[in-house]
């Protein structure tokens, strides 16, 4: 399988978002199913495994990833994020978001960053993090200071590459002046466009883009007809019963193009993303080995210009009901 570069870091074209293997987001999940999903992802060719210290209770997600890669560390690129696991006595710095949670709280003060990384290294059972991101810029800490703390970890060999998650173009430029950035991680999919200024800055600076929720939290696979109790998507207005039904209707023209090509709508959504930028790596999450294999296979799909044009025309007419962006653009 071909490689995609995120700055100087080589990845598979499509990675794996591990958030799904912890209870609390897409409902409940047991250990066995989570481990099977992680192994299925690596077996299918996902090299970039994305986790965060804030996924699951008490580092659950990083520990699950650590268990899965114990014997397979050289097969993966481990990416994790910090900021949500605020130490006792440290102040939560709150900020509003549009999506699901209403408000989030981080603490990315530089004095805590080394401790975050050391805890993540223990959770992951490794001696180096390949790609390390502040999960969100801390509204109360100058971003350059947070980034400078990661740069020190890189200097000390605890981290290989700097990533930034949920940033603006201006924040990317400011961070890149402190230390070269390998990748920005942002919400980007057929129903959630990337901020054009951020993509332009990434291109100009040679920075990769890791696309989170590349399947629109499952919607773009065309298989979501309702969302169960205990699933965090119940708090996202695009997934309310009424909006979901309307959105499925409005998405029909894109599903029709997938059917014509003999691929699934989810594969079309991933292949479309891969055509948007030569340095984008989508990180779909799934707890279902057959879905994971299907998603990885999308890396081999080549969409020609005529098909791309038809998809873009259908997307221009696809106006989803409800709010979908985590942060306002
Ligand atoms: N940086 C950030 O702030 C941030 C925020 C959110 C997410 N992320 C990262 O991005 C990753 C992915 O995002 P996400 O989980 O929000 O959304 P996603 O990958 O767009 O969607 C995941 C959902 O799609 C379903 N799915 C996946 N493949 C499928 C297929 N082939 N057919 C049918 N259904 C399929 C999964 O269900 P099944 O399990 O049934 O397959 C799951 O419900 C996360 O795991 C996390 O690593 C980062």
TrEMBL record:
Residues 13-315 form the NADP-dependent oxidoreductase domain. One of its GO terms (molecular function) is oxidoreductase activity. This is Aldo/keto reductase. InterPro entries: AKR, Aldo-Keto_reductase, NAD(P)_OxRdtase_dom_sf, NADP_OxRdtase_dom. Pfam families: Aldo_ket_red. Keywords: Oxidoreductase. It comes from Kitasatospora cheerisanensis KCTC 2395. One of its GO terms (cellular component) is cytoplasm.
């Amino acid at each position: 399988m071909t490689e995609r570069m995120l700055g100087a870091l080589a990845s598979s074209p499509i990675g794996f978002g591990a958030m799904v293997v912890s209870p609390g987001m897409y409902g409940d999940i047991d250990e066995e199913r989570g481990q099977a999903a992680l192994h299925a992802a690596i077996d299918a060719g996902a090299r970039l495994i994305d986790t965060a210290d804030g996924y699951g209770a008490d580092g659950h997600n990083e520990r699950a990833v650590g268990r899965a890669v114990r014997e397979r560390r050289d097969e993966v690129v481990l990416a994790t994020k910090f900021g949500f696991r605020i130490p006792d006595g440290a102040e939560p710095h709150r900020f509003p978001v549009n999506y699901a949670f209403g408000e989030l709280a981080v603490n990315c003060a530089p004095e805590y960053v080394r401790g975050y990384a050391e805890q993540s290294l223990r959770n992951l059972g490794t001696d180096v993090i390949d790609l390390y991101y502040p999960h969100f810029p801390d509204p109360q800490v100058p971003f350059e200071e947070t980034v400078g703390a990661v740069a020190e970890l890189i200097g000390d060999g605890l981290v290989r590459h700097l990533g930034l998650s949920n940033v603006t173009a201006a924040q990317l430029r400011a961070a890149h002046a402190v230390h070269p950035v390998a990748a920005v991680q942002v919400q980007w999919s057929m129903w959630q466009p990337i901020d054009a200024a951020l993509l332009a800055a990434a291109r100009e600076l040679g920075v990769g883009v890791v696309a989170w929720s590349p399947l629109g939290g499952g919607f773009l696979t065309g298989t979501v007809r309702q969302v169960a109790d205990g699933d965090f998507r119940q708090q996202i207005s695009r997934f309310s019963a009424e909006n979901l039904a309307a959105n499925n209707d409005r998405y029909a023209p894109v599903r029709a193009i997938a059917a014509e090509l003999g691929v699934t709508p989810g594969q079309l959504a991933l292949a479309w993303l891969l055509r948007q930028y030569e340095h984008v790596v989508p990180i779909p999450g799934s707890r279902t080995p057959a879905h994971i294999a299907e998603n990885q296979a999308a890396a081999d799909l080549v969409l020609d210009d005529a098909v791309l044009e038809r998809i873009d025309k259908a997307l221009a007419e696809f106006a989803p009901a409800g709010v979908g962006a985590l942060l306002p653009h």
